[in-house]
Design goal:
The structure is a single chain. The protein is of the alpha/beta class. The chain has a single domain, classed as Metal-dependent hydrolases (TIM Barrel, Alpha-Beta Barrel), CATH 3.20.20.140. Helix content is 39%, strand content 19%. It has ten helices and ten strands. The protein has an eight-stranded parallel β-sheet with strand order 3-4-5-6-7-8-9-10. A two-stranded antiparallel sheet has the order 1-2. Strand 7, helix 6 and strand 8 form a beta-alpha-beta unit. It starts with a helix and ends with a helix.
Length: 277
């Protein structure tokens, strides 16, 4: 308990891991963040500083439509340790269906993947056929551009698996913020998927995710925040940010009964290998 207390400092009524203050060498990558979200308006620089103080050495900033993809690139150009992904999220299809922007934006050297893209059947009124069509088209485009794919999947396991089995992703894919079952995980492992876990693995009711965290091949696991959403315990319900990826990584290392620093370094190497950074 003394170590845990010593690892934190108070910052504007919130607790963050501060590696530098306690003399440890922390090294983590937030594999999936949305720094251009309006919840960070006017505070992006502070959020980035928090991440660096916490020992987060790189951030993958994820686009989900044309506008946010462009903003992700602009932020990546400003900071050498931030990278961008570009793509069209299934929830954006009501207002946006043109994916031609991806090819032009992909020419930027800070673009490291296509995404986030995929399927989302959570809300009523979605067009399942359209979602699948746009997703498959973006897979084909990623293959053409020789880039990996960041995949969003919610309440769509069977259709997702069918698409992935029938449309080979040539440069790898990661299932971000994985929340499906052990059975789905096993099918994804057969497809050589990377799996990224976020704050929900720390929640008290996360029994299935605990089993998932134990079973992911160590060379395929990543950690992320998906910020500003789904902050890990003990920050659940608050705005999430890259600094808090430390809490998620620490919980997973405990679940896997691994040394925290060793586990963190493995996730860094996995993320660097996947994104070729």
């Amino acid at each position: 308990m003394q170590i845990r207390r010593g690892l934190h400092y108070l910052c504007e009524n919130r607790l963050f891991l501060n590696a530098e203050k306690v003399g440890i060498k922390m090294n983590l990558i937030d594999a999936h963040a949305h720094l251009m979200d309006e919840k960070f308006d006017g505070e992006v620089e502070k959020i980035i500083n928090n991440a660096q103080e916490a020992g987060v050495t790189k951030i993958i900033n994820i686009g989900y439509n044309k506008e946010t993809s462009q903003k992700a690139i602009e932020l990546a150009e400003k900071y050498d340790f931030i990278y961008a992904t570009i793509g069209l999220h299934p929830e954006e299809l009501e207002t946006e269906q043109d994916i031609t922007f991806i090819k032009e934006m992909s020419k930027n050297e800070k673009v490291v993947a296509i995404g986030e893209v995929g399927l989302d059947y959570h809300y009523e009124g979605f067009d399942k056929t359209l979602q699948k069509e746009i997703f498959v088209n973006q897979i084909k485009l990623a293959n053409e551009l020789k880039l990996p794919v960041v995949i969003h999947s919610r309440d769509a396991d069977m259709d997702m698996l069918e698409i992935l089995k029938n449309n080979k992703i040539e440069n790898g894919f990661v299932m971000h913020c994985f929340s499906s079952s052990v059975e789905v995980l096993k099918e994804l492992i057969k497809l050589d998927a990377y799996i990224s876990l976020a704050g929900p693995v720390t929640f008290k009711n996360a029994r299935s995710l605990i089993d998932v965290a134990k079973l992911i091949p160590i060379e395929k696991i990543m950690v992320e925040t998906d910020c500003p959403y789904m902050a890990p315990e003990p920050y659940r319900g608050k705005r999430n940010e890259p600094a808090l990826v430390v809490s998620t990584a620490k919980k997973i290392s405990e679940i896997r009964e691994m040394n925290f620093e060793e586990f963190a370094q493995i996730t860094v190497e996995n993320t660097k290998r996947f994104y070729n950074i």
